[in-house]
Amino acid sequence: MKNIWRLIALLLISAAALAGQQNRFSGESLAPTPPMGWNSWNKFGCNVSDSLVRGMAEAMVKSGMKDAGYQYVVIDDCWQVSRDKEGNIVADPQRFPEGIKALADYVHSLGLKFGIYSDAGTETCQGRPGGRGHQFQDALRYAAWGVDYLKYDWCHTSKTQDAATSYLTMREALNASGRPMVLSICEWGTAKPWLWGAGAGGNLWRTTDDIQDHWAGREKWPNGSCCSNGVLAILDMQVGLAGFAGPGHWNDPDMLEVGNGGMTDTEYRSHFSLWAMLAAPLMAGNDLRSMRPEIRDILTNKEVIAVDQDALGREGERVAKDGDLEVWAKQLKDGSRAAVLLNRGPSEQEITVNWQELGYPEHLSAEVRDLWQHKDVGKFTGKFSASVASHGVVMVSVRP
Ligand code: GLA
After folding, report:
1. CATH of the domain at 360
2. Is residue 15 part of a domain?
3. How far is the CA of 58 from the centre of ligand 1 (A)?
4. Are residues 276 and 324 in the same domain?
5. pLDDT tens for each residue of 297-349
6. CB distance 77 to ligand 1 below 6 Å
7. How many domains is the chain partitioned into structurally?
8. Do 167 and 183 form a contact (C-beta atoms < 8 A)?
9. Which ligand 1 atom sits closest to the C-alpha of 154?
10. Beta carbon of 126 within 6 Å of any ligand 1 atom
11. Which of 137, 199, 248, 267, CA to CA, is 20 to 30 A from 371?
């Protein structure tokens, strides 16, 4: 009898431990809302270093970005140079003289989290050592360094390599390390990661190839490979994907270009608004140490960020399109809606959002608030119209 009770107690303890372990690494606990942070790639490419990353972490705090919700500081490609005799990954000793752990400790000391980059192939996109064949070894090392977030790329993979299995292996390696780490799948949408990304333990997955710091267009790279994308090209590729995102697992239309100089402030405001509507991860990609106040105000607009981070985790969708004029809508947890009136065209235009496009009845009276002007616009029944600048947005909340 005594033994039976002992067995039951043992089973209960094991079940609780297992549930705890699963819960610790479940997508919902790692990324209940889209991750927010900064990544080195869009502005600095391979020019990464200890002092750059420390400076960026400090600026994230000083600029008010940390208060606005940004937390991950992520080094992209080029921090690694080789593997040692045991196969351990080696950071560039010139650029990271104190090693990655000291840097991660510093980032943590500012109340932020630390992220790093590798690749599911034999080499990264910049020809540095990749992770293939070293997944468990790398995960242990990352855990020892205090890594909280891993972006895992897809360059130099073999033609027969299966993406879902490759990312699942990395997720299992991360879990086996014992340290919770966000897994950012960077497979560029080639094998439709929205279909398998969550199952592979990914918390976000790129839906497209790389963003570029311009408004529109989709062009081949100089070497002929496809493609670099303007904001609108990426936006169009998100249509139809909303149903695949939710708490713990997000579509990733790539990192932000806000502040990098290739677009106007109006276009950057649109880029940021649309990414918030898409419940996209908000990874700033500019130099946070020297941004103009206008750029800081875009990146730290708490009302727009609240739309991105809304706890319901519903991705917004395009609900109306008339040539260059579009309406995007996102349902929020309290039953209200966010709406973006987008003017892709060359001149100022009036755009109307009808309540029916928001899933509301026509006769409903609702409060409209402008999320860039930070002011209530009034009560409207059935629809709301606004004049929208060329390449601009008007972003509102509609609250019955
Ligand atoms: C790929 C990714 C980019 C960046 C670079 C680094 O192009 O899509 O986001 O990580 O590799 O080499």
Report:
1. 2.60.40.1180
2. no
3. 24
4. no
5. 999 999 999 999 999 999 999 999 999 999 999 999 999 999 999 999 999 99
6. yes
7. 2
8. yes
9. 1
10. yes
11. 248
